[in-house]
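Researcher: Structure for this, please.
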Amino acid sequence: MPTTPFRRPAVLGADPSDVVVRHTTKQGTTRSYDFGRLPMAPAMQRSLAVLFAAKCTNGSWTSLRSSTATWRHLRALGEFLSGQENPPADVPDLTAGMWSAWRLSRAPKTETGYNQIMVTQLLLRADGRLPQEVRAVMARRLPEPKVQERAFEPDEFRRIKTEARRTFRSALLRIRENTGHLNAWRNGDYAPDSSQWALGEALDLMARTGDLPRRTSTNGRTRGIASHFAKVLGGGTPEHTWQRLFLTRLEAGALGVLLVTEFGFNATTMSEMPVPRAVPDSGEKSGVKVYRLELEKRRRHAGHHFESRNITDHGADSAGRLLSDALEATAHARAYVADRDPGLDRLLVWRSKGSKSEAATNSVGELIRVGPFGLGVTPDAAGLWAQQQNLPSKVLRRGRKTVNVVHRREPGQNTQDTHDRVYVLPEPQVQAAAVEVIADGVTDAVEAARRTVLRAELADAPKAGDQETATASCSDFEHSPFTPSGAGCGASFLLCTACPNARVAPVHHPRLAHLHAALENLRSVLEPATWNADWYDAHARLEDLRQRLGTEVWKQAQQQIGELDRQIIDDLLNGHFDS
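Model: Predicted structure, token format:
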């Protein structure tokens, strides 16, 4: 019996000419990427393949969508670099001019252009050979593109939910009626020579195998279902046969839309949601069932977000009733999957139009298949359903935003910061309802941003005439933005990272890395209010520096911390000198 596919690491051959990377997710879906097809020099192909393989194996990418998107952006980068007068042979040959030109060529105000720039530079920063001048260009702020995606207007949202209910309800009633007939047959309620008995036999066979026996032509090809069953069922089309017990792809898409518009789930969270479990003892006396949802959302660069919710079925219009109906509509399909692959646990299972009922577990892109059954609901399926109903596009993403921003008004599988920054602030409905609040807070928000963003210049080395401070080098001690001009700077050395006169060179990286760690340690022992008041801004600027330098450079800085660096930072934090 097949088992859930084992997760294997990305494969990259030891032979320098072998630059094919295979990404296998924990769900068992696999895709290969041949870096030899990129229009780049062999050394550059190999370097990018190594960086790409590391992302596939270290948990950064948990879906094929992430690796595929990065591959497309790297292909665009390769086409751009190959058009340069002197294309780089490898990562160390990249120049600041090349990267600046790449940024300008990408239309960064669009989502695609912005992603091409950010994804490629994030990948390249992990290579320690990347020149510092290129890192400095990468560290320049790139405005995020204006969000075009809006929450649904109230009338649109109501219409979408109504149409989704109509589609799913029709499927549920169909499956419920045929399941009732199947159960009666299994209980022996029909005479063996009756038409009801023959129908029950056909339903039982479909429930167990996912299909019915088929006719074979003289050349060995499989044709329609056996004529006996076609006569019993009234025809041999999907509507007459397997749709009696299983959801179609688009009906599962409508159910996915209902789950998103009810709970505000991320599309992937909804698609991969395991079967809800009834809380022990719930419903036995009161008749009210309580389901526990175990949710998981993969976060970019930050592992996974796990969440549990208890949902109560207390009536026809309750959120829990939707779960009860979903369990009922998918029961036969889930039983088929559980029998052939017990390791798979998904609520949303539907049957495809194919008839290959005994195929082993396999994958097509992100979609996991077990025989003729698909697991999960993709945005494409939901989008196709919406298109057929003449509904707006991107129904899952916009539906999720509508629920979490307009109705629930709280994060759904996101951090509070991401919820506010990405979903709430750009939403016109929120802006219209909060004009006065936004106006009052603009000044405070801008000032807070200035305090927490690195303003010091990133440099390859201190320049002649600069004065060394405890944390950086200073190019203009007499004209500080923090003290009157000509009086000499009297600000704390912690403010050097907030000063445009300061320069941060590689020689300063170890000391600042140690300061960052020291502030982290203080956070663990101080009251939150005290730490936020005294150290939050300085820590935020160092965190900004860490992001700009990249993981590899920051690790090197941590490894190079010396005794003098420790002594200077200890003196700074203990107040032995302040400016």
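Researcher: Any notable elements?
Model: The CA atoms of residues 160 and 416 lie 27 Å apart. The two ends are 71 Å apart (CA to CA).
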